[in-house]
Amino acid sequence: MKRILDLLLCMALALTLASPALAAASQTELDRAAAYVRENGIMSGDQNGDLNLSSCLNRAELAVLLTRLNGGVTKAKANADFYTPKCTFVDVPEWARLYVGYCVKNNLLFGYDKLHYGSADPVMPAAACTVILRARGVLGGDGSVWSYNTACSYAVGLGWIDESAAQEKAITRGDMAILIYRAFAEPQQETTPQQLGDGYLTNGKPVTEENVLELLHLIEQDWPTDAIWGTHNTPGTHKNEVASTESGRIMRSYGESNTYGCGAYASMVSSLIFGDKTNPGRKLEDISKIRPGDIVFVVSPEGKVGHVVIALESPNHEGRFHRTDGNHGGTIQWPDAETLRSYSLSGFSGISPRHLEVWTRYPESIAYTGNSVEVWP
To answer: How far apart are CA 84 and CA 102, in angstroms?
Structure first.
């Protein structure tokens, strides 16, 4: 019965020429918002190019919108065999399964239960504000800053949504366009990075272990476990396309590729955290002081690199720490509760013994704290 009522609500909104919520925003702003979402590929029109701004936004459309907003369309299509099966719901049309699967895997959206997603159901204002707050990087969702129940009032306070739109029973496509436009196109004092350069990360926050971990969790969402990572002889797969001047210098000092393979993946992750040219790297003399985000090389006695990974934490009392790596069987890997991927400071045995060599991009002025032991997963 609820879904029938929701569908009727969508139909009623679609027949309305302009909702009261849309009227609260000026037509000029609505035009700017429509231009913004169209030009940035976030919303597309129908066969006539009409964005249908007065129509209700449904949950299937929201999945497409969030995938585009997250910059995941190319990645999702390139890994369709990975993402589509993540959509286990029986009520998602075939055209939307890839996008719903991508959003579910990256924790952008959730279903009602294991079998039902509610593709045709209208998007509620609280849901719209929640996903945009998350996408914009406004931390919360656990009740400490904002929660699902307070997302609307928090977004109203930021000026991202009008009170009238927040009180509607459903969000129109025009409401969503304005919400996105205000959150992403207009300057945001609360979330604008304070400074970039040495001593600061790519999100504008100071270089600290805690802030590096925050970025690592975001990178895990964009590049999840089992996402395909390329090698030089597997064309069409992912490779490092991120500007990596400093991390590339580190890779080349070991003769490692900065484009393909495990070295390129580690180089990309390092650049996404510490920047292209900022925070120059240095070899770590005491590898027991590894920190999240450090680049770890597995080296043979002859100086040959066997593998390159990114540390996710500091070594524990046994000298073990978790890591993420690309090109493990042609895919990206992160540790989880079932698969604990860790290295040991004591090295490796096999055909020949191997040891670890570590490069860090933490400035020397930032002391090792020991606060990142056993913090992952």
So the answer is: 7
**Pairing status of strand 320-328 against strand 305-311:** antiparallel
Dist CA 81 CA 141 (whole Å): 31
Domains annotated for the chain, with CATH where assigned, are 2-185 (no CATH), 209-360 (3.90.1720)
Q: What's phi and psi for 277, nearest 5 deg? A: -115, -10
Tens of pLDDT, residues 28-61: 889 999 999 999 999 987 778 788 899 999 999 9
Closest CA to 306 of 254, 258, 260: 254
Question: Would the pLDDT of 96 be above 70?
Answer: yes
pLDDT tens, residue by residue, 66-89: 999 988 899 899 999 999 999 999
Tokens 């400035």, residue located: 363
State how far the Cα of 57 lies from the Cα of 173, in Å rounded to an integer. Answer: 5
Name the nearest CA neighbour of 30 among 6, 54, 8.
54
Structure tokens at 357: 């060599």
Distance CA 204, CA 338 (A): 34
> Under a CB-based contact definition with an 8 Å cutoff, are residues 295 and 310 in contact?
yes
